[in-house]
TrEMBL record:
Catalytic activity: uroporphyrinogen I + 4 H(+) = coproporphyrinogen I + 4 CO2; uroporphyrinogen III + 4 H(+) = coproporphyrinogen III + 4 CO2
Subunit structure: Homodimer.
Source organism of the structure: Colobus angolensis palliatus (Peters' Angolan colobus)
PROSITE patterns assigned: UROD_1, UROD_2
UniProt record similarity statement: Belongs to the uroporphyrinogen decarboxylase family.
Gene3D superfamilies: 3.20.20.210
Name of this chain's protein: Uroporphyrinogen decarboxylase
Pathway(s) annotated for this protein in UniProt: Porphyrin-containing compound metabolism; protoporphyrin-IX biosynthesis; coproporphyrinogen-III from 5-aminolevulinate: step 4/4
GO molecular function, one term: uroporphyrinogen decarboxylase activity
């Protein structure tokens, strides 16, 4: 620790490391908490900041990303910040056009339809150089956080990115992307390899820029059954962790905890707990006690309150949180929602969730 209060990379010294300690499996005085999509449309100040420009222009503005990342921390005593960005900046950097259609979500005007469409993609080695704006946003935010809480970087996992690139947007069945897995397994693996090769330097770049933890979002795990998941998702999830860790060592960068969140991936919890990640994120369909049983004591669990529980009264939120904390147990645990916050949620209820986690987890440790 240097006398000027600056840490090893010249960033302000971290004052609250509870989230990082829990992620590494160390003891904590209370349960740390953050929320997926904590920088989101449920905050009026977020809507105001975002109103000025289109979605991906915002993503490309380090100043705007920094402001959006910090907004929830001004309101709530969260234990981590997560950089404001989007998983689809990676397909964009690979040369695909992506637009955000208000009310509809992301849209790819020219999705991947044929095997030869893979030739349109840029060399994955150049992706990190295309995403300098994310790195700048991380560095700026890390400075402005002034050591208050750790900053999480993130990316989408290969299968989830593939679904968007092939479907051309969201889909309730992922039938086009899954058609590729069955009809074009070789091309599918080629695409998943390209995405993995792009993600590794992108995630390492985020750490070099100041990210203190990384979360990989396999948001569309639930569309795959165990067989397809083990063949087309899990090997790449494993590969990302292994290669990111090796690259960090080679670059002389300190290791950071990595989180895997495979939504609706309840059939793969045991495999995910052995995939090389310190933390496994759970959605609300998983019973915490069952998850602990099948995943053992070697990983930290993160989650998993149903986001819709925030529509309940503040009193009921407190009861639901207490039950959740009892079920997960005091250590090796990070509280979160089982999915992101929805735009129509009341910020007061988000505050009630955060406060309830802190309050009940302290009481739990006293008993």
């Amino acid at each position: 620790m240097e006398a000027n209060g600056l840490g090893p990379q010249g960033f302000p010294e971290l004052k609250n490391d509870t989230f990082l300690r829990a992620a590494w499996g160390e003891e904590t005085d209370y349960t740390p908490v953050w929320c997926m999509r904590q920088a989101g449309r449920y905050l009026p100040e977020f809507r105001e900041t975002r109103a000025a420009q289109d979605f991906f222009s915002t993503c490309r503005s380090p100043e705007a990303c920094c402001e959006l990342t910090l907004q929830p921390l001004r309101r709530f005593p969260l234990d981590a910040a997560i950089i404001f960005s989007d998983i689809l900046v990676v397909p964009q950097a690979l040369g695909m056009e992506v637009t955000m259609v208000p009310g509809k979500g992301p849209s790819f005007p020219e999705p991947l339809r044929e095997e030869q469409d893979l030739e349109r993609l840029r060399d994955p080695a150049v992706v990190a150089s295309e995403l300098g704006y994310v790195f700048q946003a991380i560095t700026l935010t890390r400075q402005r956080l002034a050591g208050r809480v750790p900053l999480i970087g993130f990316a989408g996992a290969p299968w989830t990115l593939m679904t968007y690139m092939v479907e051309g947007g969201g889909s309730s069945t992922m039938a086009q992307a899954k058609r590729w897995l069955y009809q074009r397994p070789q091309a599918s693996h080629q695409l998943l390899r390209i995405l993995t090769d792009a993600l590794v330097p992108y995630l390492v770049g985020q750490v070099a820029a100041g990210a203190q933890a990384l979360q990989l979002f396999e948001s569309h795990a639930g569309h795959l059954g165990p067989q397809l998941f083990n063949k087309f998702a899990l090997p790449y999830i494993r590969d990302v962790a292994k290669r990111v860790k090796a690259r960090l060592r080679e670059a002389g960068l300190a290791p950071v905890p990595m989180i895997i969140f495979a939504k609706d991936g309840h059939f793969a919890l045991e495999e995910l707990s052995q995939a090389g990640y310190e933390v496994v994120g759970l959605d609300w369909t998983v019973a915490p006690k069952k998850a602990r049983e099948c995943m053992g004591k070697t990983v930290t669990l993160q989650g998993n309150l149903d986001p819709c529980a925030l529509y309940a009264s503040e009193e009921e939120i407190g009861q639901l949180v207490k039950q959740m904390l009892d079920d997960f147990g005091p250590q090796r645990y990070i509280a979160n929602l089982g999915h992101g916050l929805y735009p129509d949620m009341d910020p007061e209820h988000v505050g009630a969730f955060v406060d309830a986690v802190h309050k009940h987890s302290r009481l739990l440790r006293q008993n």
